[in-house]
Amino acid sequence: MGKQQRYTPEFRSEAVKLVLEQNLSLSVASKRLGIPEGTLASWMAAVRSSSKPSAPGSRSTPDLLAENARLRKELAETRMERDILKKATAYFARESLPGTRS
Q1: Spatial separation of the C-alpha atoms in residues 12 and 62, rounded to whole Å
Q2: What's the CA gap between 57 and 82, in Å, rounded?
Q3: How do the domains of the chain map onto residue ranges?
């Protein structure tokens, strides 16, 4: 028997997104990605079964992934704003010292 291929969780989620977001069939998506159609089908089944919240207040994996991406983007913007404010504070602090104005 051949050696079984291992795929990263990131690759799996991107493959599932390709099918869900671009409405590709399993056969087309599996050919594009170079993976067996059955493998992709099992990943899709796992996502579909996990996307049904089991308890009130619980959220599906795609919802959590979307929120995670949104929060990462928001954090990057907040860090950029913080860095700009730090530089502005340093500039104005330097300008307010006697004898430092040009």
Answers
A1: 12
A2: 33
A3: 7-50, 64-102
**Exposure pattern of 20-30 as b/e (b: 16+ CB <10 Å)?**
eeeebebeebb
More confident residue, 82 or 3: 82
Distance of CA 90 to the CA centre of its chain: 34
pLDDT (tens digit per residue) in 45-84: 888 777 555 555 667 777 788 889 999 999 999 999 999 9
What topology is assigned to 7-50 in CATH?
Answer: Arc Repressor Mutant, subunit A (1.10.10)
- DSSP per position, the chain: -PPPP---HHHHHHHHHHHHHH---HHHHHHHHTS-HHHHHHHHHHHHHHTS-SSTT---HHHHHHHHHHHHHHHHHHHHHHHHHHHHHHHHHHHHSTT---
